[in-house]
Write a structure and sequence with these properties.
The structure holds 2 protein chains of 2 kinds. Chain A is α/β, with parallel strands linked by helices. Chain A contains 13 helices and 24 strands. Chain B is of the alpha+beta class. The chains are: A alpha/beta, B alpha+beta. At the A-B interface, loops of A face β2 of B.
Chain lengths: ~550, ~160
């Protein structure tokens, strides 16, 4: 058989709908292309095919038995039916079997609300169990690793977690053990599920068998709202769904993005959502002796404007690569047009240990974006060491910093106190805030509509949670208010307008607008999409 | 002239009812109860002050599933969950507060509860208080309320269904 002779497309019919897919496609994926949803537990797009849950059985014409759609490949002229009585009966039977030893402890199960067993029960089973015997009792709430709790009774043994650990993490820490109704997922004796990507198993667990110890019992899933965002843990910029409730971030879930992270996140990045809530600066503040006292926003803006007017000519500017492109652009325009400053210092978090999957050494999500903007606006970029040196030499009187993050591993950072006045737009009461004289609360990526550029040059959007527990504002807003106090015209109508001005001024963002950036992000002009090996098991 | 006659007729009706009500109470079918000397007994399905039921060992039956908080149309229930020391129960409420001023006494929380942990069978109203904070009934207070009817059978407990 020669591959050259193989046809490029196969035509088949799924539920009377004609579908055209490349040969080798599974029936389940082919059905997706024509909008037919086939229920499944064990199948995952990025993992090998196990076909062990049997939920995806469909009827294929001329086939004597039902075929698992996740495993069966398409063939020319195939006729697939997913809603025939035979299929429905099979689905009902599969569900009934899965529920035989399931404890149905939904009230105490964290998965309730996003559980496939619950969803499919309502959709496909619709009948109560006929099982009258005692259920088999297995281990419950078993801490299987530092981040994860395993409940053997809820487990349906789909082996998604096992396959993830073996195929993606390449560290087979999990395996199914035991036989029959006593079978469960386990680590080797004495070992733990402690791989730095282990929380992905919680994401892909279709039931409540693997739950996150960190998220456990904190929130019921149906209270959570979603905002498309990106992980700000490192310069990879993995796509995430930020789940939040009433202005509090509760967790990150991986958002599928074939350009960046497929379906995965590292544990450090995933737990980075806590930085949205922790140590936040809620109101503007000014230094009185050793204390920072709360101040009205307008008063803080007025004071900042006065200081910047008086010290003009001796102002240093710092920016953290944790802030959005909009904030960075506004700051640089503010520097160039109003302060007449042409130099900028990049602060940000210190590097951390990278790995060979997703995590990058640079723990700042927007260094590339800020560099591109600075280059286009003709700003000279210096690093944090230059800033410390400037403080030690008394090169400037005033420091204007956007973003409070500084590397923790440089103790000389306290030398920033030597500046006469430190005005900081601070997200957190950490870093530069601690040496600050005047602080204005700065909105983090989860509180503003903005964009960030990952190290590879992919421009991605971040969306706001919609409700805030603090009075933080984006830097472009705060800076335009400060400029107003300096009696200078420096206004933006909104985040879209900032980005429009940015796209006009910086060729890297040429032709983009907030609305035109797709969910997967858009490559900046001149950015070469890297040769990327997908984190998926080849089929 | 007709105006005065009609007015008098009306006054006569009122007066007749007044005399009848005062002198011949029972026959007139008056339903007024001489509170507080006499008190009506409530029907068994009267929705009174909430209470949290307990297990035989005194711990709350509630497993903090948030069903009542979810269904509550007045947003008057606030729960915070924590790990239970009893591994078979797993989850219990660390904080359970009902704002009785916000409560609209609809009883949906009782309907929604999968554990029979919250009931409104105390047959009393929230007593008057001098501050709004005093209407925030906390977990232990709610657990101390007694039901007016017979106690429910002791369930096996936990989120487990057996």
């Amino acid at each position: 058989m020669t591959t050259a002779a193989a046809p490029k497309e196969v035509t088949l019919t799924i539920d009377e709908r004609p579908a055209k897919v490349p040969p080798g496609t599974t029936i389940l994926e082919a059905a997706k292309t024509v909008g037919v949803r086939i229920p499944h537990f064990c199948y995952h797009k990025c993992l090998s095919i196990a076909a062990n849950c049997r939920m995806c059985l469909v009827e294929v014409e001329k086939s004597p038995k039902l075929v698992p759609a996740c495993h069966g490949r398409v063939a020319e002229g195939m006729v697939v039916r997913t809603t025939t009585p035979k299929v429905k009966k099979a689905q009902q039977a599969v569900m009934e079997f899965l529920f035989i030893n399931h404890p149905v402890d939904c009230p105490i199960c964290d998965q309730a609300g996003e559980c496939k067993l619950q969803d499919y029960f309502m959709e496909f089973q619709k009948q109560l169990s006929r099982f009258k015997e005692e259920k088999v009792e297995k281990a419950k709430a078993q801490p299987i690793g530092p981040y994860i709790v395993y409940d053997a009774e809820r487990c349906i043994l789909c082996t998604r977690c096992v396959r993830f650990m073996a195929e993606i993490a390449k560290d087979p820490q999990l395996a199914p053990v035991g036989r029959g109704d006593r079978s469960c997922i386990s680590t080797a004796p004495g070992r733990k599920l402690d791989h730095p990507y282990s929380l992905n198993t919680v994401d892909i667990c279709p039931v409540g068998a693997l739950t996150s110890r960190e998220f456990r019992f904190k929130m019921r899933t149906w209270f959570l709202s979603n905002a498309d965002s990106i992980c700000t843990g490192c310069s990879r910029g993995c796509s995430v769904v930020l789940q939040h409730h009433q202005g509090t971030a509760h967790r990150y879930l991986a958002r599928e993005n074939p350009l960046v992270n497929d379906s995965w996140l590292c544990d450090d990045g995933r737990l980075g959502y806590r930085r949205i809530n922790d140590h936040r600066l809620k109101d503007a503040a000014e230094r009185k002796g050793n204390e920072m006292l709360t101040l009205a926003y307008d008063e803080a803006v007025k004071q900042a404007g006065q200081t910047l007017l008086e010290d003009r000519g001796s102002i240093g500017v710092a920016i953290s690569p944790q802030v959005t492109c909009e904030d960075a652009f506004a700051l640089m325009r503010f520097c160039a047009d109003i302060l007449g400053v042409r130099e900028i210092h990049l602060t940000g978090r210190a590097d951390w240990a990278p790995d060979n999957l997703l995590k990058r050494a640079d723990a700042n999500p927007n260094r590339r974006g800020i560099s591109e903007i600075a280059a286009a606006l003709g700003m000279k970029v210096f690093d944090v060491h230059a800033l410390i040196k400037a403080a030690q030499n008394g090169a400037f009187e005033t420091l204007l910093a956007v973003g409070a993050d500084v590397p923790d591993d440089i103790p000389e950072i306290l030398d920033l106190k030597k500046f006469e006045t430190v005005i900081v737009l601070a997200e957190r009461t950490r870093g530069i805030f601690e040496v600050g004289d005047l602080a204005i609360p700065l909105a983090v990526h989860a509180e503003q509509d903005g964009t960030m550029v990952n190290a590879e040059g992919l421009v991605q959007r971040v969306r706001p949670m919609g409700r805030q527990k603090n009075r933080a504002v984006p830097a472009w807003k705060a800076l335009s208010d400060v400029a107003g106090r300096m009696e200078r015209e420096f206004r933006f109508a909104g985040p879209d307008a900032v980005f429009a001005a940015l796209a006009e001024a910086v060729p890297f963002f040429g032709g983009m607008s907030h609305a035109s950036i797709p969910a997967h992000g858009a490559w900046g002009a001149g950015a070469a999409p890297p040769e990327r090996k997908p984190l998926c098991t080849p089929r | 002239m007709k105006y005065y006659i009609d007015t008098l007729k009306g006054v006569m009706v009122t007066t007749r009812h007044l005399v009848k009500n005062v002198l011949r109470r029972e026959k007139a079918g008056v339903v007024t109860v001489e509170y507080p000397e006499k008190k009506l007994t409530y029907r068994p399905n009267f929705r009174g002050l909430h209470r949290l039921t307990r297990r035989p060992d005194g711990t709350p039956k509630c497993v903090a599933c948030f069903m009542c908080e979810t269904v509550c149309p007045a947003y008057c229930i606030h729960i915070e969950a924590e790990e239970s020391p009893d591994g078979r129960i797993e989850k219990r409420p660390k904080v359970f507060v009902i704002d009785e001023l916000r409560c609209v006494v609809c009883g949906l929380c009782v309907e929604a509860c999968p554990e029979d942990a919250i009931r409104m069978d105390t047959a009393v109203h929230p007593p008057p208080a001098t501050g709004r904070d005093e209407f925030l009934y906390e977990r232990d207070v709610l657990m101390s309320h007694k039901g007016a009817g017979p106690e429910p059978p002791a369930a096996s407990g936990g989120g487990r269904r057996r």
